[in-house]
Design a protein that fits this description.
The structure is a homodimer. The first copy, chain A, is of the alpha/beta class. Chain A contains 11 helices and 14 strands.
């Protein structure tokens, strides 16, 4: 089985690659080749015995998508995107990468299929940014997509294209809307959502973190481990059971910042919690107030997607996956 | 005031042009210039005293959109599209005309605004085809768009783009989802929805019509007169009251074929009804079974959009507007 990952150098792309290598296969079939593409060259997939193609390419350059498909991968993970803040700041770049890039990929698959039958599985990571406030108490599976960012608009368009190309039989696609990934590994970044991870990850390593909002802020989370689980399940499940509505909100955990901190206290003690410094930031408070707080995802759950059910579980997954099982500090 | 109509040669485009000329103005301002564009040259707007530009152009040809905007129209009606059946049969053409054409237009407006401030009103006709079965009993304002045709996909994407361009301040846009237009003037056509109009229009002129479905089929209708009313209102209303969710399902009338026929009986008598010949068509029965039957449109109604409330009213509008007030036969 040949797997193509577009966006392979990102956090999710690297974790997915590692998981595929650790599993040795996908859906019971051995992985014999990996094509890893990103705007920067993805790292060499350590421990993989099969054929590896790595390349630094921009999917929004015409012709690149066809090139990525040259060896007709069986499964395509399309994770590549520029993030919300950048798509908002640079309108042209956001549409070029997130919309044109995605459309070029879908169209290149269709064109390859016109030459010789070809209907790969396509897994596209969408986002809860396809929804825009005001929201119901919990966003259900049939709530409309009225994004309030260009990024969310581009993801919603990607979902529509994916469903239409799948309906026409050009490929077999599924779009999964990831919750905010928490705890994001790495170092604190400037993303408005960064603090949800920072206030757990940094104290778990004995470092200070800044909390810019109040403890009653509620948001929607899943661990990196759960996100990779969604991707693997999306790549292997029977899509006939999904029907023509190919965009799904993934399950997750709705929790307040206060609940996050309580879970940190339980797992790592008061010493860790004491490292959280409260510094209200009006800009972040305003941005976050427009974000989804809770979802109701019966479809994805019935289809077998599984997320964490407590923040302790999310923290323990981070300690196992990122800290070698030990709380630092 | 300068008005641009793209898709000006179609049924709605011609009726809109006539209405603007009859009204003499739009939103209290005199119409001084009309630019009429379509893939075939739109007819000369009889009775109009102002400047007229007519041209046969394909909006999906790069550069054409900018050309249409050369004189910076104040209001732009974007009605152009290839219809559902053709977009389904010719995938490339559907995306080229309905998606690329629309995006070129929106982008040309943005580019014009980068040269010199320019934020015209843009009215985009969308369709109830953005929705796909299964439906709730009545489709509400917050129901998700999961089209089951490429046409519906292209319209849903147009809505998303329009909302994002409007949110960014590149223009002031509104997308209105028209019900099925009934009674469509002209001659019977092959569109699967044609019979909804045929079974009224033809008997009103003393001609036979074929009914391919059973009388309990329910659908969502508005007259051409109501549709033009929606367009005028969309072009003149205060969009600040609409907020960022710029795509609206228009009000309409949910009626069964049996109710249509009862209204025909009331207005034109048993003689007219006797001209309807029942010829069940399994293909049309299947297509129509996937169509929306009813909507609940509180947002559009609160914003002042008005449709008919009975099929008698729809039939009488047709007799006044198309038959000079007289039932033929």
């Amino acid at each position: 089985m040949h797997i193509l990952i577009i966006g392979a150098a990102g956090m999710i792309g690297r974790k997915l690659t590692s998981r595929l290598i650790a599993d040795g296969g996908l859906g019971g079939k051995p992985v014999t080749a990996l094509t890893l593409v990103d705007v920067v060259e993805p790292p060499f997939p350590a421990g993989f015995q099969g054929t590896v193609n790595r390349s630094a390419e921009d999917l929004s350059t015409p012709g690149i998508a066809a090139q990525c498909l040259a060896d007709r991968p069986d499964v395509i993970f399309h994770l590549a995107a520029i993030v919300s803040g950048e798509a908002e700041a640079d309108f042209d770049k956001g549409y070029r990468i997130n919309l044109d890039g995605t459309r070029y990929l879908f169209e290149a698959i269709r064109q390859a299929g016109l030459v010789q039958p070809y209907t790969p599985r396509v897994v596209f990571t969408s986002s809860i940014a396809v929804f825009g406030a005001p929201f119901p108490e919990a966003i259900g599976d049939e709530f409309f997509t009225t994004p309030l960012t260009s990024y969310g608009t581009q993801k919603a368009i990607g979902e529509l294209l994916l469903s239409d190309y799948s309906r026409k039989g050009f490929f077999d696609g599924i779009a999964i809307r990831l919750p905010t990934i928490c705890i994001r590994p790495g170092t604190p970044n400037k993303a408005a959502s960064g603090f949800f991870s920072n206030i757990l990850r940094e104290p778990l390593s004995g470092k200070e973190a800044v909390l810019p909002v109040s403890e009653d802020v509620r948001h929607w989370h899943a661990s990196p481990r759960a996100a990779i689980g969604f991707l693997i399940h999306a790549a292997t499940m029977d899509l006939a059971t999904v029907g023509p509505r190919r965009a799904l909100s993934m399950p997750g955990l709705s929790a307040t910042v206060g609940e996050q901190i309580a879970a940190l206290r339980k797992v790592a003690g008061e010493k860790a919690v004491a490292l959280i410094r409260r510094e209200p930031d009006p800009t972040i408070i305003k941005i976050v107030s427009g974000w989804a707080r809770n979802f109701d995802t019966p479809r994805a759950k019935a289809l077998g997607f599984v997320a964490e059910s407590s923040f302790e579980e999310i923290i323990r997954a981070h300690i196992e996956d990122e800290l070698g099982g030990k709380i630092g500090g």
